[in-house]
Amino acid sequence: MNFGTFQGPGPGVLPGRPDGAASEQIVLLSTTWTAPFSTRYAIYAVGAGGSGAGANATAVSGSRQCMAATGGGGGGLAVKSIFLIAGTRLTITIGAGGAGVAGSNDGTVGNAGGSTTVFGGGVNLVALGGSGGAVNVSAQSSIVTGAAGGGASGGDFNIRGGSGGNATATCSSASDMRAEAVTGGGGVGWYGTGYAGGAATATSSTTANSLSFATTGGGGVGGAGGAATMTSTAGTNINGNSSGGSSARAGNDSTSGNAADAEGYASTRVTQTTAVSAFRMGGEGAGGGGAGGVIQGMGGATGGSHNRSSGMCAGSGARPQSVNALTGLGGGSGALSGTSAAGNGGNGFVLIAWGPPI
User: Fold this and answer.
1) Cα separation of 222 and 226, whole Å?
2) Which one, of 126, 291, 316, lies nearest residue 219 by Cα?
3) Are 336 and 52 in contact (CB under 8 A)?
């Protein structure tokens, strides 16, 4: 039997899946798994995503406040091709997503995701969890680098998860100003590259009573979240949101208002015929929701005011506290502006595919 590739809708290909794979199984809980046949197996281990940081930027009269918070990093991915004898036992540990944190006036950093491991029968896969989001709150300038994605080891291919988006918030010397930049979480590098959440830049300048608010979408498996760049001048308020990366491309950028979703409802729908089909790999809402309901498309969630669920392996978008954007398996959760709890990072998982018995 030839060992082929797992081809998906994204821009890259990972070796891994046997040609004509007869079965595949997603493992979501820690367990001991037993190989049912003597054949070649493709094993994918995905670490858990980190949770985004939280901050509650409430300016005091006569003051300035700049808040920058980043999404969590996506989990690492280790891929192994190996022949296993029937009855071989694999010990699988699934990493838990980083616990969500509540926003505070001084800012609260996110929590790292747990590692996913697969050991036994010559398999030694370790997929590390993504780092927790970072945050900074200051009077004039806050610049934060996005949380790093998790690494991986032991596979034929070891791919680092995408980082949370970078965040920059700047206020001029005038009083009564606010600038908030919050970013989406990183995705899993399912097709060879771990894509980051979108970068957010918020600037309030020129005169008092200016407010700028920039939020970004999470990284998908086919592209990074879009960037959001908002600049408020002459006492105006401006806010806007980019969209998340999709199964096939990067999210859309925004300089004012809400960017259109990277892919609409039911576009580029690609599903598997086995267990993975339940997760809609590249299916409906693949680019952060599109129009209509969302069921586990393989893209990133839209940031800001949109209420969208991320797809499998995708980071969620940054959001205000009134919005709940669920994170995909292995993805980092977006940063939060507000006092409620930010979302948890996505849990890790293991995918095992195998061909007919030999």
Assistant:
1) 12
2) 316
3) yes
DSSP one-letter string for 320-332: ETT---PPPTTPP
Query: CA 160 to CA 141: how far, in whole Å?
Result: 30
R_g (Cα) of the chain, nearest Å = 20
* DSSP H stretches of helix in 88-192: none
Phi, psi torsion values for 222, nearest 5 degrees: -115, 0
DSSP 141: E
* C-beta separation of 216 from 197 below 8 A: yes
Q: Are 129 and 113 in contact (CB under 8 A)?
A: yes
Q: Which two tokens stand for residue 31?
A: 């367990």
DSSP sequence for 182-219: E-PPP---TTS--PPPPPEEEEEESSSS-EEEEE-PPP
Report the chain (358 residues): mean pLDDT per 10 consecutive residues: 32 40 81 95 94 73 76 94 96 95 85 97 97 89 94 96 94 75 89 90 78 84 85 76 75 70 36 33 30 34 48 72 61 76 84 84
Q: DSSP secondary-structure letter at 42?
A: E
Q: Per-residue DSSP letters for 215-241?
A: E-PPP-SSSPPPPEEEEEETT-EEEEE
Best CA proximity match to 66, nearest among 175, 172, 178: 178
Distances in whole angstroms, Cα of residue 103 to Cα of each of 36, 275, 294, 296: 47, 37, 27, 27
Q: How many CB atoms lie within 10 A of CB 299?
A: 46
3-state SS, residue 68: strand
Q: How many CA atoms lie within 13 A of 93 on its CB side?
A: 14
**Selection from 78, 74, 70 nearest residue 53 by Cα:** 70
> If you ran DSSP here, which 8-state letter would residue 275 be given?
G
End-to-end Cα separation, the chain, in angstroms = 8
Is the four-CA dihedral 56, 133, 183, 29 of positive or negative sign? Answer: negative
Angle (nearest 5°) at CA 352 between 350 and 358: 160
pLDDT of residue 230: 86
Whole-structure pTM value:
0.84
273 Cβ contact partners less than 8 Å away, ≥ 6 residues apart: none
